[in-house]
Amino acid sequence: MTNTKWAIDPVHSSVDFSIKHMMIANVKGTFNNFDAVIEANPTDLTSANIEFTVDLASIDTRNEDRDNHLRSADFFDVENHPSMTFKATKIESNGDNEYDLTGDLTLHGVTKSETFTVTYEGSGKDPWGNEKAGFTVEGSVKRSDYGLTWNSALETGGVLVGDKVKISLDVQAAKA
């Protein structure tokens, strides 16, 4: 099968993250607006062209004050850096429908190479005859690598916000 174009289905997809808070718990959030360019054979991603864009202003942690702080210059600075992008540079199969997806992640004006694990979950036709494919993506990044260093020391030791951000995507794409 050759590479074909796929459109992300935002209603059946999500871009989620979690990060340590006060060194004792995880705070979770999501980004509500995102898009992708996908040219792929879903059963063999090794030659795929994948580009992903996330609208950082669409952050949602279920707390408006926290979301506004994350949009501010202390964190994402969405006025100057409105999006986070990822462009695949290398995709290697690990067998069993799993891949190492390496690419250039750009956040807060900084671009670094990052690797995520992608699992092809399967494909099929929906009740209207549209071909769909599903993927999960897992990985983590250090926010300090991207200049996101705001923090607050705790009385008990440690810091308010962790450095490691766990990223999780559930993607359903429709053949274009």
Write the layout of secondary structure elements.
Blueprint: E1 4-8, E2 14-21, E3 25-31, E4 34-41, E5 44-55, E6 59-60, H1 64-71, E7 83-95, E8 98-107, E9 110-125, E10 131-142, E11 161-175
Antiparallel strand pairs: 1-4, 1-11, 2-3, 2-11, 3-6, 4-5, 5-7, 7-8, 8-9, 9-10, 10-11
Written description of the protein model:
The chain has 176 residues and is mainly β. The protein has one domain (4-175): Lipid/polyisoprenoid-binding, YceI-like (Lipocalin), CATH 2.40.128.110. 5% of the residues lie in helices and 61% in strands. The protein contains 1 helix and 11 strands; from the N terminus they run ββββββαβββββ. The protein has one helix at residues 64-71, and strands spanning 4-8, 14-21, 25-31, 34-41, 44-55, 59-60, 83-95, 98-107, 110-125, 131-142, 161-175. It has an 8-stranded antiparallel beta barrel with strand order 1-4-5-7-8-9-10-11. Strand 4 and strand 5 form a beta hairpin. It is elongated and about 60 Å long.
Q: Low-confidence parts lasting 5 or more residues at pLDDT below 50? A: none
Mean pLDDT: 94
Number of strands: 11
Give the end-to-end Cα distance, rounded to a whole number of Å. 15 Å
Distinctive features:
mainly beta, Lipocalin, elongated, eight-stranded antiparallel beta barrel, Lipid/polyisoprenoid-bd_YceI, TTHA0802/YceI-like_sf, 176 residues, 1 helix
Short account of what is shown:
The protein has 176 residues and is mainly beta. 5% of the residues lie in helices and 61% in strands.
